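> tool_call: predict_assembly(chains=two)
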Amino acid sequence: MSILISLFLKLSAFSLIAFGGVNALLPVLFNLAVTQEHWIDVQTFSDYFAIAQAAPGPNFMTVTLLGWHVYGVIGALIATLAIAWPSSILIFYLQRLIMGIEDPLKKKSIQYAAAALAIGLVLSSAWQIALQINQSMAAYALTIGTIAIVFFTRWHPLYLIAIGALLGVLGFI
Amino acid sequence: MSGFGGVLPWARRTLVERDKILTSEEFSAILGICQIVPGPNIVNLAVCIGSRFGGARGAVASVLGLTLGPISIVLLLAVLYEHYSYLDSVKGVLRGISAVGVGLIASTGFKMLKDELRYPAMFIVVIVTILAASYFHLGLGWVVLISSPLALVLAWKKAHSE
């Protein structure tokens, strides 16, 4: 029971600082689940990350899987609820406030500031997570290749995930 | 449910183009707000759109509608993972996908970074944030506290420079 409460409280706190969404939060989740609490090992974390990427739906599924690992279906629901409720309540009240700002300069400033913050957090998240889960030079090459393809083509991400899966099953990564 | 590779493009197509519940401008404005606020972006979007049509109840309904299906699927995958994760081919597949996944996250960041080229001073915020998080390993709360005043000042200047 206490592990459920701890899961709920810690994830709830993360919800309010997750600028850039859950993807920006991954290193913090890693620290909590792997380094501090020893809920899962590095391999399981990176496998869950992969499953969450490949599954349809929102990208917070790594959190759901983490909860599942800790306490089954109840854990999965508690973890998902925890990551979503504080920010949901925040935006429920904030949306009218922000929509109501008359001064377009103020509105833009808030938007630009949040965007810059999110970019920094998302990029550092990608960097830190790459260091944890890429175990070979081939994996880094695939990561860099993915970035290049996204930049220079309009391929659907699902194709890239399929290519990753294929290269993986053939033993290249 | 059909949100492979992110739910956003699909949400836009359904709400704006098919059902015409929102205009394109309204959708973009709502999306802008949802990206400002911390938390899972897509849940934020569901709260905003749901509450427009049904208050708090609408918000809860749209969040549940959006998340319950995918959660069931991912839990099903988790059960399969428990049974088959010992297989070398499964391990390989997951290694490949996670390497691509990191790349996809990084590309989101780089694409947003490209938009900042119009006002390069904003790069300072990005660099300070990255250094605080990745080099000094500060907690996320501290990183946000340190970077946000700087971000607001520069954003204010950027807005005035346009």
